Amino acid sequence: MWYQVIQSRDGILNKLALKKNFFGLSKVIGMIAAMGVLIATVAWLSGMFEKKIEPGWQPQAGGRLGNQTTDTVHEVDKETIEEAIGTLKASSRTIVSAKLMATIEEITVTAGDQVEKGQTLIRLNDQEYQSRLAQAKRALEAATANREQAEKQFERVQSLQEQNAASRSDFDDASRDLQVTIADEARAMQAVREAEVMLSYATVTAAKSGRIVDRTAEPGDIAQPGQPILTLYDETSLRLEAPVMEHLAVKLRPGDELDVKVDALNRVYRATVDEIVPQADAPSRSFLVKASLPKSEDLYEGMFGRLLIPAGIRRHLCLNTDAVVRIGQLEFVDVVLPDGIVERRMIKTGNLGMPGRQEVLSGVDVGERVVLHSDDNRGSSEGDVDNE
């Protein structure tokens, strides 16, 4: 009986081992199948099962030149203009401040006002200086009275001395008193003039004509000597100050006339080079060039401007603007090959030249023929060629 039990147990164990091996093999086969599916999916997504197109330009299928108008790519010589970006500044700029420490009673102008030379700009409280002037005048009156008295005394002593009725010592004393009173009177007169000058500083006038551009104080503020209150500039002295690359700046001379474009006004002004700072800026390798502008009511200090500097003659390609096809931000031309096939190429254009001509930087060569497009079929090449 024990022998039968042992045989039964061994049979059960063998069955369990076979079942375990079967499940392990099934798991391996499943993993291999999943890996194969994953590899096939990646290959399909990467386009391994699709037909490849060789790189390069592909002419339009059967596209040949019909009765469309063509033009030739030309090579022309054009003067190159370099731009130097700068700012309008006034060569004559005046800071208006007080010479006295006093309360500001009135400021007669505001920013933007046009003022003339001698016009009153600021009035200060002058009571203290009025009092000083009055004291100086009283002192002058006393000095004048002393001088007159000393003159009379000198004349009496001089008359007595001529009659030998006065001693030489009395004559010298009278002469000395007269000289002292004369000096006192002169000093008093000088004090009066000084008080009048100080009083005149209570009214600040414009030293020159110009435009007020800044106001940094208000009535009631305490004016400090030398502290800015107003800023004005002479609008006839506006000039563009721009850093110019050294290879261009060394060719410029004071007195040269250049064009200045002011973008805000979309206007070009003729300017004259006034000054070239004789020291290059090391980081930018440029010189500061200052060019004076003509007087204009539309120009203001601080405006943005471009100094247009001729940089010599440059050869470049140009083509008819009607040949350019624009699709979004891309530009194309239809080039006629020697066998009559029309090939569309992407190009890069530059600046507009003469009316109807466009500078082209890349995409075509000199002498190649390009198809001209009308406005109604500019965006489609099928309207420009005949399909055989």
What does this protein look like?
With 388 residues, this protein is of the alpha+beta class. It has four domains: 63-78 and 315-387, conserved putative lor/sdh protein from methanococcus maripaludis s2 fold (Beta Barrel); 94-121 and 211-233, no CATH class; 126-201, Helix Hairpins, CATH 1.10.287; 235-312, Efflux pump adaptor protein, beta barrel domain (Elongation Factor Tu (Ef-tu), domain 3), CATH 2.40.30. Helix content is 30%, strand content 36%. The strands form five sheets. A six-stranded antiparallel barrel has the order 3-12-15-14-13-16. Strands 2, 17, 18, 19 and 22 form a five-stranded antiparallel beta sheet that branches. A four-stranded antiparallel beta sheet has the order 4-11-9-6, with no helix packed on it. The longest helix is centred in the first third of the chain and has 44 residues, at 2-45.
- Using the coordinates above, name the CATH class of the largest domain: Mainly Beta
On the 0-100 scale, what is the average pLDDT? 81
Supply the CATH architecture of the largest domain.
Answer: Beta Barrel
Distance between the termini: 99 Å
Q: How is the biggest beta sheet arranged?
A: 6 strands, antiparallel, barrel
Number of helices: 4
Strand percentage lies at: 35-45%
The run of helices and strands is HEEEEEEEHHEEEEEHEEEEEEEEEEE
Low-confidence stretches: 376-388
In total, the number of strands is 23
- Helix/strand structural class: alpha+beta
Overall domain count: 4
Rg is 49 Å
Keywords: Coiled coil, Membrane, Transmembrane, Transmembrane helix
Transmembrane segments: 21-45
Pfam families: Beta-barrel_RND_2
Protein name: Macrolide export protein MacA
